[in-house]
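yo

u said u wanted the structure for the complex thing, so here. seqs first:
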Amino acid sequence: MKAKMKKFPSKIAQKILKQYKPIWAQKYLIGLADWDLNTYMPEGGAKARGEAVGQAESIIQQKYLQPELQKDLDRLQNLENKTIYEKALVRVMKREIEHYKKLPPEFVAEFNRTASEGQIAWRNAKKNSDFSIFRDHLAKLIKLTLEKAEYLGYKNHPYDPLIDEFEEGWTVKDLDKYFESIRTPLKELIKTITSKKDYKPEHKLEKAKYDLEKMKRLNHKILEFLKFNKNYSRLDTAPHPFTSEMTTTDTRITTRYSEADFRAPWTATVHEFGHMIYEVQGDPELEYTPLGEGTTLGVHESQSRFYENFIGRSKPLIEKFLPDIQKLGKQLQNATTDDVFDYFNMVRPSLIRVEADEVTYHMHILIRYDLEKALLERKLKVDDLPEAWNSKYEESLGITPPNDARGVLQDIHWSMGVFGYFPTYSIGTTLSAQWKHFLEKDIGSINDLVSNNGISQIHDWLKKNVHIHGKTYDLNNLVKFSTGSDFSSKFLLNYLQKKYA
Ligand code: MG
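structre next:
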């Protein structure tokens, strides 16, 4: 408690934190309900669960909009000599409150209704690979999203307030600059890789079947190697792997299994581990405060991608578990470390974003960014979207989807009315390379650390430079604070060049 006083020494900040605690509790329970919904809840529970979470969310809204809390935040804002934590407290809470104030409840209700209907239509459209089933829903969601942008307010572009929801402070101007910095270099790198003499677009291990129980045990062994704390987390199965962050002492992860392609459950587990450790290594002194969780989506993804790509796909990790890999199935018994490494790191232009490799992944995001921006600018008509999608894939990756299910209908985001989210995947992956650069400068190569039981040193570096800060800084300020440099794609480009060119 004493330490907490140091971070939030003023009486008014203490009062605000007291008012925040019931909000925290609602969020905690929503997180738990969400985890359960996506893992063990019987299907019949869906309706009541939706109702309960909706009610809990409206309690949060009421608490945020209490006039007393807003007055207290103004008082804290006007206080001189605030600590950085008190400043961040004002910033984070005012953002939430502004959001609730700007969007009329009737509008939010209509938006949510349209989005639930949109998801059902999208599922149906995807199943039948028929865009026309989803078309009207998407048109309505775009219209409502533009209205939402008006309510939230913007200076230059309706996309600005949308991206800001996910990546605080970012605008179309920043995104354009960022994406232009990677567009051509990556396109050229893909060309270099795919035109190499020994380039193979397939790998024999992709189709190798694995024993489910053995793979599950292997995942737990990998987690143990990563010093996974069973007191603070657990691993379960879910169709779309995710992490549920409740507190620093309870953050849960999931993975998925199929018959073949053991790379998928392996990388998903390590990816979600990265999201998990960000929360578990958070500052206990920030617990129960609005700063006590990972900051933006981009920073969160920078942690999952860090563990997935630099540790999960690394040669020393594969080498360590090669005997286990060989026991996974008949077709794997003669696999070598190099085989598995090549399989884990093969670059191949493909149609599906979630299956993409480190290099082509960004092209998938670029395509979505270009298209969603054009839709919101009304430069692209909804009717022309499938064709625009296909020609972008042809232009960027040299392949055309055979149908809409494997093309424009593959992602759920737009059907939920979520625009401005995709860029954070790319930003996070790029940021992970920046962390790698500075971590290696400080404590040496990640490969060596993985080989020589240096996992704790990696965790500690990320704890000190990223995890411990919670929401105290947004992405740009966190990078600046921890590395002294601005966010930049040059670290990613250098890393990919070195690894693949
Ligand atoms: Mg992720």
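Residues 271, 275, 301, 304 surround magnesium ion (CB under 6 Å). The beta strands are 235-237, 243-247, 250-255.
cya
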